[in-house]
Write a structure and sequence with these properties.
Blueprint lengths: L2 H15 L3 H8 L14 H8 L4 H23 L5 H17 L12 H11 L1 H18 L2 H19 L4 H17 L1 H9 L4 E2 L6 E2 L1
């Protein structure tokens, strides 16, 4: 496979990931979500500060860019017989761009929503596993962060179960899993200390 194809995939998907939904929509409101709440450019912080109704566009942006990155990676790698690998590489680069956006001062989100749809694009079984784990944890506790951390772990477990034979797909899956857990390190500390806030994803505001 030509190096140029790999580089085009990496750069295109990384800069696509720079278009963070929460930042883009808050800028449309003449504001910056990173200046409020936790300072994170993620869906949860957006909902806490702007409400669930305004989050629809955030979701659309982060979902569509994940789908597009995986589609692009698959399209570029397929002629060489590595379509699945291309989707995984595109997804990983998208996540890196979302979490560490060069165009946004390297202050991005945590990638759980984009990561979920990357999983759907690469292997629907992993996407389904993530959905079950996240919603079970969230509905039981109202902690989005706990659901996100467990879902990120399930991401890695799913790829280890179904793609152990494919080092590229497995490596990308584990990298995305560990990256998402790393991005939630502050939440993990607060959960352990009992200081994490609960969140109502259907409306604005936090629960004590």
């Amino acid at each position: 496979m030509p190096i140029s194809t790999i580089l085009v995939t990496i750069l295109s998907c990384y800069f696509l990931g720079n278009h963070n939904g929460a930042i883009c929509v808050s800028h449309m409101l003449h504001d910056d979500v990173r200046e409020h709440g936790s300072g994170n450019a993620g869906l949860t912080n957006f909902i806490r500060n702007y409400g669930a109704n305004r989050s629809i566009l955030v979701i659309l942006i982060d979902v569509l860019k994940a789908v597009l990155a995986c589609w692009l990676g698959r399209a570029l790698f397929t002629p060489y017989g590595y379509g699945l690998e291309g989707a995984a590489v595109g997804g990983l680069c998208l996540m890196l761009g979302h979490d560490f956006p060069a165009l946004m001062g390297f202050r991005g989100g945590k990638g759980i929503l984009s990561g979920w749809f990357i999983a759907w694009m690469v292997d629907w079984r992993v996407g389904a596993l993530i959905a079950v784990v996240f919603f079970s944890a969230y509905l039981a506790t109202q902690y989005v962060s706990l659901g996100s951390v467990l879902a990120a772990a399930a991401f890695g477990v799913g790829f280890a179960i179904w793609h152990l034979h494919n080092p590229v797909v497995l490596g990308c899956g584990l990298a995305m899993s560990l990256l998402t857990i790393f991005q939630h390190r502050g939440n993990i500390v607060r959960l352990v200390k009992g200081q994490e806030r609960k969140t109502n994803l259907l409306g604005k505001g936090n629960k004590k």
